[in-house]
Design goal:
The structure is a single chain. This protein is an alpha+beta fold and 617 residues long. It has 13 helices and 25 strands. Strands 19-18-21-24-13-25 form a six-stranded mixed sheet. A five-stranded antiparallel sheet has the order 1-3-4-6-5, covered by helices on one side. Strand 8 and strand 9 form a beta hairpin.
Length: 617
């Protein structure tokens, strides 16, 4: 069965495996061995664990297969083979569950290389799971294969539909009646709950923990999963970058005791070298009960052979925790450790990405006497502060300023890296004294040369660049500003005059990086006070509403004509809002808008409006 690799994958796999096993053991399939309901539950939970692990790293989806396997004679049975038939070695029945991952293009093999770090973590997690469940497990680059030996609910007699290799030597016995449920607060309530609901609890806990991308959220969720089901209180320490420990989260059945418990636990943190699981721990001083204390145990959070913290639980009024509860908490600790590792990898990659992105764009725009500047920048990709569009505005001496607005083809991480290189290269060429025309010619030569040296065939990996580049020279005596500007494959800049007329400010020319020997030409205009220059990327002009684009029939010029009398910031905001309102569909490209308005010297300012990921300031 094909299931999507998302949060619903585990639920779909559980439903599928249960349906398959129910059909195989139904009365209309008398030739199949009738495995017990408990073994069906075990197989369903095991499939849930496998799919939860695979879904985090798979491509478009997963393939889940399930079938029965039988064999004669004694077998190396795990702790799940509970029938007398299996223990006597009369024969065995197994449920085989196989999870096949699909790669990015729908090919088998998953989205990670067999030699990648993610694959190593997955393999270690599978080995830990197999050891915990006592099952046979094989992990390859394409699939995870697991066999679970089962208990049979009805051994087959020789006269009724025998199965090859399965002699019927055990008489049928009715299952014992279930024990009555103990009330909450009873000393044996948690142990009984762990026996009855433990494996279901682990499956749900695994799904919840695997979906967290923040280590403190992992710790908080683990505490809420354990309290009050298996403990009266829980505390989780996590390692720090300096080989120390910090108390991440404390949880208690009575929230009023959390602060007191935290203060008590912080006085005696665990050793960073803790390796023994289920280690008895001194009962905290501030956590006294009428039964004079209780039982506390510490569990190391270990994944990938490395220590990542300690999980501490306590049960009030209990001299010691039962083995069933201890084993269940050990499993939760393993899943918590793996979730912490995953969250830390995500945080590390996100931090690196943010750090690199901050260097791709200028942190501020230069203030130009006599020019009011406004910028809107909205990268398309979720979670990124930089896309394929880029901008800059920097001084060149005391009386000249350079500005640029560019767009690299694509909006992925590679496009982001090219934006930074192009921006810094333009600055370098400008500081070497190159004017608008010679700068574009040299930049074009550099890009065509790089494309020729690329290992990929031309057109497959080459990046094209459109660029609008200009120089501004304000004249304090007249209040006007001379602008020399050139467009290389970029949407034409528009000039809004004081009487509301909109005209193009530069002639269209070919993209950079296409033809090595192209000569670019610049246009010169004079902006008088009250006139505005609008520069945008194709995220504005090519905004779609069905088959219509925003700039069809000079749509952008007509919008700009309605902005007569508005300041630079108001014009930038109107263009941005109009672009969003042009269609009900989300923006499908990076968006960049640069507005330069000639104003009296005392009014000049620079304003940047950017769309940043939530939580970043």
């Amino acid at each position: 069965m094909h299931v999507p690799a998302n949060e619903l994958a585990a639920a779909a796999a559980r439903k599928f495996v249960r349906a398959v096993l129910t059909e195989r053991t139904a009365p209309h399939s008398p030739e199949a061995p009738a495995i017990s309901d408990g073994s069906v539950d075990d197989a369903v939970l095991l499939a849930s664990e496998l799919v939860t692990s695979a879904a985090a790293h798979a491509g478009p989806g997963l393939e889940v297969a399930c079938h029965l396997q039988v064999g004669p004679g004694p077998h190396a049975l795990g702790p799940w083979a509970r029938t007398a038939q299996a223990r006597a070695g009369a024969g065995w029945v197994g449920v085989v569950v196989e999870v096949l991952e699909h790669g990015p293009a729908g090919r088998p093999g998953g989205s990670t290389s067999p030699h990648s770090p993610v694959h190593g973590y997955r393999r270690q997690l599978m080995h830990s799971l197999a050891e915990s469940w006592g099952v046979t497990c094989r992990r390859t680059g394409k699939a995870t294969w697991v066999r679970l030996e089962c208990a049979t609910a009805r051994p087959l007699a020789a006269t009724e539909h025998p199965v090859a290799g399965l002699p019927a030597e055990v008489t049928r016995r009715p299952p014992p009646p279930p024990e009555p449920a103990l009330p909450r607060g009873h000393p044996g309530h948690r142990a009984q709950w762990a026996e009855r609901e433990g494996q279901w609890f682990l499956a749900e806990a695994g799904e919840l923990l695997a979906g967290q991308l923040d280590e403190d959220m992992v710790a908080a969720l683990a505490g809420q999963l354990l309290v009050p089901r298996l403990a009266d209180w829980c505390a989780i320490w996590l390692t720090t970058d300096h080989a120390g420990l910090r108390l991440s989260r404390v949880w208690h059945t009575d929230e009023q005791h959390i602060r007191t418990l935290r203060r008590s636990l912080e006085k005696d943190p665990p050793s960073a070298a803790l390796s023994t699981t289920g280690l008895p721990w001194p009962w905290p001083e501030g956590e006294k009960t009428p039964n004079t204390g209780g039982s506390a145990l510490a569990f190391p959070l270990v994944a990938g052979g490395r220590y990542h913290g300690t999980l501490l639980i306590g049960q009030a009024g209990q001299p010691e925790l039962t083995d069933t509860v201890v084993r269940l908490v050990e499993d939760v600790a393993r899943r918590t450790a793996q979730a912490v590792v995953t969250a830390r990898h995500y945080t590390r990659q996100a931090t690196i990405s943010r750090t690199l992105q901050r260097r791709q764009l200028p942190t501020s725009l230069a203030a130009i006497p006599g020019i009011d500047t406004a910028l809107v920048y909205e990268p398309w990709a979720e979670g990124q502060t930089v896309g394929g569009d880029f901008y800059d505005l920097f001084p060149m001496g005391r009386h000249r300023w350079c500005f640029l607005l560019g767009d690299v083809s694509g909006h992925d991480m590679e496009a982001m890296s090219v934006t930074g290189l192009a921006r810094h290269l333009v600055r370098l060429l400008a500081r070497e004294g190159h004017g608008v025309e010679t700068l574009l010619n040299r930049l074009n030569h550099a890009m065509t040369e790089e494309a020729a040296e690329a290992t990929t065939p031309r057109g497959e990996g080459a990046r094209l660049l459109s660029l609008l580049y200009g120089e501004l020279e304000p004249d304090p005596a007249t209040g006007s500003t001379q602008c020399t500007i050139a467009s290389a494959g970029h949407p034409s800049p528009l000039r809004l005059t004081t009487n509301g007329t909109v005209i193009s400010a530069a002639r269209p020319q070919i993209l950079l990086g296409v033809e090595e020997h192209t000569n670019y030409h610049a246009d010169t205009i004079t902006l008088t006070p009250g006139e505005t220059l609008l520069c945008v990327t194709d995220g504005v002009t090519e905004r779609r509403n069905g088959t219509q684009q925003l700039d069809d029939d000079n749509g952008l010029a007509r919008i700009l004509a309605t902005c007569a009398g508005l300041g630079a910031k108001a014009i930038a905001e109107r263009i941005r809002q109009t672009t969003h309102d042009f269609s009900t569909q989300p923006i499908a490209d990076d968006l960049a808008i640069l507005v330069l308005e000639a104003v009296p010297v005392l009014r000049s300012a620079a304003t940047i409006t950017t769309s940043r990921p939530q939580g970043e300031y």
